[in-house]
Amino acid sequence: MTALLEIRDLHVSIEDREILKGIDLTVNEGETHAIMGPNGSGKSTLAYVLAGRDTYEVTGGSILFKGEDLLAMDIDERAAKGVFLAFQYPIEIPGVATMTFLKAALNAQRKKQGLGELSTPDFMRKVRDVSARLNVTDEMLRRPLNVGFSGGEKKRNEIMQMALLDPALCVMDETDSGLDIDALRVVADGVNTLKSKERGIVVITHYQRLLNYIVPDFVHVLSAGRIVRSGGKELALELEAKGYAEFTGKAA
Amino acid sequence: MTAEVRTVRTPAEQAIVEHFETALPALPGGARVRQAREKAFAAFRKTGLPHRRVEEWKYTDLRALMKRAEAPAPRPSADQAARAAATPDLLPGVDRYRLTLVDGYFFPALSDVDALEKAGVQFASLAGLLAADNEMSAHMLTHALLASDDTALVLNTAFATDGVAIRIAPGAMLGKPIEIAHVSTGGASAARHALDVGEDANLRLIETHRGAAGAAYQANVAWGGMIGQGATVSFAKVQMDAPDAIHLGTTMLGIGEGVALNHLTLTAGAAVSRSQMFLSTGGDHTRLGLYGANMIGGRQHADTTLLIDHALPGANTRVLVKSAIDDEAQGVFQGKIVVEPDAQKTDAKMMSKALLLSETAEFDAKPELEIFADDVQCGHGATSGRIDAEQLFYLMARAVPRAEAERLLIEAFLDDAIDALGDEGLAPSLRGIVSDWLAKRGTRTP
Lengths: 252, 446
Known about the structure:
The structure holds 2 protein chains of 2 kinds.
Chain A: E1 5-14, E2 17-27, E3 32-36, H1 43-51, E4 57-65, E5 68-69, H2 75-81, E6 83-86, E7 93-97, H3 98-112, H4 120-133, H5 138-142, E8 144-145, H6 151-165, E9 169-173, H7 181-194, E10 200-205, E11 218-223, E12 226-231, H8 234-242, H9 245-248
Helix pairs in contact in A: 2-3, 4-6, 6-7
Chain B: H1 11-23, H2 31-47, H3 62-65, H4 78-85, E1 97-102, E2 105-106, H5 113-118, E3 121-125, H6 126-132, H7 135-142, H8 151-159, E4 164-168, E5 178-184, E6 188-197, E7 202-211, E8 218-227, E9 232-240, E10 246-255, E11 260-267, E12 272-282, E13 287-296, E14 301-312, E15 316-325, E16 330-339, E17 347-356, E18 362-371, E19 377-385, H9 389-396, H10 402-421, H11 427-443
Parallel strand pairs in B: 1-5, 4-6, 5-7, 6-8, 7-9, 8-10, 9-11, 10-12, 11-13, 12-14, 13-15, 14-16, 15-17, 16-18, 17-19
Antiparallel strand pairs in B: 1-2, 3-4
């Protein structure tokens, strides 16, 4: 069976500085992987490279998504094919109403999948189903995208987009950062609802806290651009108890 | 004719002199008006067209940009005018009174004069007022507020053929806006308008400019006006002139205390255009919002120039000019805020933002503050840059294709200025002009 995501010996640089120094990672359908590591280990770089941010240069290795060369695809093509990055810091876009954006995103994806545009009532119904579950208010949907949203509102908005676009692979970059415990629970519940045997989830986090709510099948420790250890969910607890120094050979 | 004839330097300048001498006898007005025209033209004989060494025209070198001067357009026949004006509506769905000029001549048959008068608006054509040749007539042309030395205005004074004079009674409130539609078919035109808004009146005004595609006409339009104390005015200028046209627009307004004026200039047309405003304002509770939404491409050159003189204390002024510049086009913003010694407590902020959509697009900004009072809050800023890469990435990461993501971002950028005007009835049409421009941009062959 073809893996959902297959990363082989991935090397990535930014401005001639190598950030990722040979990453291997396989994510199969239905699996939830956590990638943990100290600041500067390359976690966010990995997330951005999966989404296609062009400020990073891939200098070696390969990424296959459902057997296809992900690195050959433009950003929007990856998204349309089912790769979704939930941003650590969702971007504010003044002047573009959240609702307008959601419609553009959903219809763009449908178009690439050869489907027709959603009618406005169908679209509204789809949004309302998801927004209610994530406490995304109508008022938020009318506001410009992420502008003036609190940290929690931004993250809920991310998960709402994820639910609407129904991706095969969810990559969550530090989704817990800036969230209080209640907001964290809402976001985690949102993610857990999306867990399915067809979907892969990659949770990138510094802290074990999030993994109490989104329980991973596999945990990988990233340090200085390499995965230095992989294990089951108990590895996260071990990390929490001992700190990163134990695994990386230096203080985190 | 005059003793101070300067050696004329360019063929266009030479042609303008010849055109003036030929046109003068037939221009409306008697001896007094003729004297006013000759006095203005004497200034042109001395200076010629403005060029880059004239500070106010530094970035719009008209001497270089205006290769030749078109002859004054003759008055079109009623049929010709009706045909020229019968183009698709620029503002579909906007219910308004219309006053139509074709090639600088007012056409009552294409205008809603009766309805306007029934609504209580006093109206006269400029040609009619000039023909009376009294003190008032000459004043119509010489009233220049802060712009007396400006060459665009000087030429307008010399060549003005017609225009509209509108008086809104104190306290009047019109149910719908008035559009002054300028349609051009060719040649050079000079329209001069007068606006007198009574105290506490409420007015929505729209000035539109369009012309026959392929016609290399040269349109010069000028407004002189007063807005009475406490009046509320929304004024939109929509410049959609033909691709080969030259557009010179001058708006001079004296603004009373307690006035709320919002003005938007939307620029999408003409090869070379300059929209300049000269405003004298001030006073408690005076609120001035001056906005610009410019979208240019190809080799277009578009200049927005503002001079805002605050003479009385307590006014609040906001300037926000947005320019989207593509291809090899050049955008210019010059804004000068003056605060006179008596104008304490003035709160004035000026912002110009340009979005450069190609490697070769150019934008020049020259914001200036001249402050002679010590208790004021004034500031200005100017930015120019590419589409935000982070925003583009975010939209694309949600499956939105690059071209559409760019379109969403440019549209949001320009709509911001349109929304600032605050005219809900007009905004959908103006946003439509933006999306049409973006759609054309998207489908062109590179």
